[in-house]
Amino acid sequence: MTTVLPVPSTAPLHTSVPTAAVRRVLIANRGEIALRIIRAAHDLGVKAVAIYTRADSDADFVSLADDAWLLDGNGPGETYLDIDKILALAKRSGADAIHPGYGYLAENALFAQAVIDAELTWIGPPPSAIELLGDKSGAREVAEDVSAPVAPGSDGAVADLAEAAEVAQRVGYPIVIKAVHGGGGRGFRACASADDLEGAYTAATREAQSAFGRGECLIEKQIVRPRHIETQCLADAHGDVRVLSTRDCTLQRRNQKIVEEAPAPFLSTEQERIVSEASVRILAHVGYVGAATCEFLLGTDGTIIFMEANARIQVEHTVTEEVTGVDLVAWQLRIASGGQLPESFPPVRGHSIQFRINAEDPSTYFPATGTVKNHRAPAGPGVRLDSGIGEGSVVGTDFDPMLAKLIITGADRNQALARARRALDEYRIEGVSTLLPLHRVLVAEKAFAEDFEVWTDWLETTFVNPLAEPQSGDHMSTATDSFSVVVEVDGRRMTVSVPKDVISDLGHVPSPSVPRRKRSLSRRGAQLADDSNSLNAPMQGTIVSVAVSAGDTVEAGDTLAVIEAMKMEQPLKAGHSGTVSEVLVDTGTSVRSGEPIVRFAA
C-alpha cells in the first residue's frame, strides 16, 4: 500500500534540496538501533562512526562501526543528550552527517539546527517540522488546519492544575494528560474522575520534566478502550509524501508499546483511507522530510482521532520493512543526500509482528538489571532479530531497557503467530529477566491471537497474567527460588528445575531469564504484601516523591511513594491497611532493589 495525494498548496515546500551524498555518518545513539543504522550505511557504501560510553565499550555496535569514539560521562544527560560533546566528536571523527536514531536527541529541534549550523547533514526532518510536530499542541493545530480528526481538549498546554480542572470539566471525564514535548508514553496519564486529577496531573508533569526537560501538558478527552493505529511514512525534499503501511501497536504497558504488527489487522478500507490521507496532509503541511509515523486512536465505535506525529524512525519500523521489502533506514540516508521517492512503493505482502525484548520482570513490568550469561537466538523461516546484546552484556539502569527486537513474518497473521510461538520458545536470554515469558503467553492468548479484543491498557486492566501469583513478604526481591539444569537419564536428555536451597552450598547459582517465583501484577503499581511490615524498592532507581510520613494511617492501594528507573515512574502502593512507623527515604534518594522504603508498625 502506497498512498500518494496532491500536496496542499499551503505546504511550505523546500526550495533547497541537499546535493552532497552522505559518505561518513556519525550515529548519535547506541544498542540495536545503532547497529541497524550501521548495517544500512554499509549496504549503501557509507562509513559509520559510533559513539559509545564506557559501559558499552565491548558492545557489537562499537566493534562493527568503521570508527568508534568514546563519549565520556555518566548517564544520558552527560552522554547521548549532550549536544556539544556529540558535535565535537562528529568534527574530530570526520563525519559529514549525523543520524540520531530514536529517543535521546532524535526529536530535538535545537540539536537538528546545531547539526545544520555545524555544516553537517542532518538525517531527519527540518527543525521547523520537528518544532511543529514535537510540540503536541502544535501538532494538534496542524491536524485541525488540514481537517484531520482530533479529540476535544485544551488549546495548547494548560497553565496549571486549576486550568486542567476547567478543561476536564468542559470536555468531560475520562481525560488524558499528555506531555506537550516528547513521547514514548512518558508524561502521559489517564484520569477517570476529578478525584484523580491532582495526582495524575502532578505525575504527568513531573515525569515530562524528568524525561524531556519540560513539564508542560495538555488535556484531551479520552477514547475508552481504543486501539493504537499508525502509519509509516516517507517524505522527500521535493515535496513527495508516501504512506507505506499501517501498523497496530495496541499491546502496551505504562503507555509504552511492547508488541507491534503490520499491517494493522481488522481495519476497514475506509479506516485505512482516513488515517493514510490524514497522514499525508499533516506531513505535507509542515514541509516534512525523512521518515515519520503518524499515530491515531481507533475507538470501539469506529471513531478515529489523530494523536501525534513522531519526527523520527520508530522502534517498530521493522514490521513495515518486512511486509514491503523497503529498507526505511537506507531511505533516510538517500533522502538526506537529495534522493527523490519513487511514484509508489511495493504493496504490502504478508504479515509481520515485532516483540520488544525488554529487560523487565515479566510479572510486574519492573525494569531488571544483570549480566547476560547465556544468549541463544531463534532462527528459521520468517525470523529476524535486531539485537544490541550478546553474552557478557551488562544491563544497567542508565539507559532504555530494550535489549532486542524479535520480528516474525508470515504469509498471513496466523502463520506469523505460529512462527512467533516457535521462535519465542527457542529464544533464550539468561542472567537478566526479560519480557520473553510474557510474550510466550500473549501469542497463545485468545483475546490477542484470535479475537483481537484488546485495547491500549488491556494488559494493565483486564489481562490476567499467569506469571503472577500472591507474593510473600520478600516479593520485591530479584532472586529466584530455582533454576533449570539439563541432565541425561538412560540416554534421554531432559530439563529439570532444581530448588536453589538444595545446592546453595555449591557456590554460584545461575539466574534464569524466566523467574520461577511468580509475583503479583498490580493494576496501577507495585503493592506491599499483605503479611509484610515494610515496603521495599522493587528495582534500583530514584525516589521522586514520598506521599506518607511517620504516624500516617494508610489503606490498601494507597500510594506510598513513586520510584523512577530508566525514565519511567512506578507508584508503590500499600497492600494492606496499617500505620507508618518510619519513612527511610526522601525525594531524590537513590535506592537499590530490595532496599526498605517505608516500615509499618507491627
From TrEMBL:
Keywords: ATP-binding, Biotin, Ligase, Nucleotide-binding. It holds the Pfam family Biotin_lipoyl. SUPFAM superfamilies: Glutathione synthetase ATP-binding domain-like, PreATP-grasp domain, Rudiment single hybrid motif, Single hybrid motif. Residues 21-464 form the Biotin carboxylation domain. InterPro entries: ATP-grasp, BC-like_N, Biotin_BS, Biotin_carboxylase_complex, Biotin_carboxylation_dom, Biotin_COase_C, Biotin_lipoyl, CPAse_ATP-bd. PROSITE patterns: ATP_GRASP, BC, BIOTIN, BIOTINYL_LIPOYL, CPSASE_2. This is biotin carboxylase. It comes from Brevibacterium marinum.
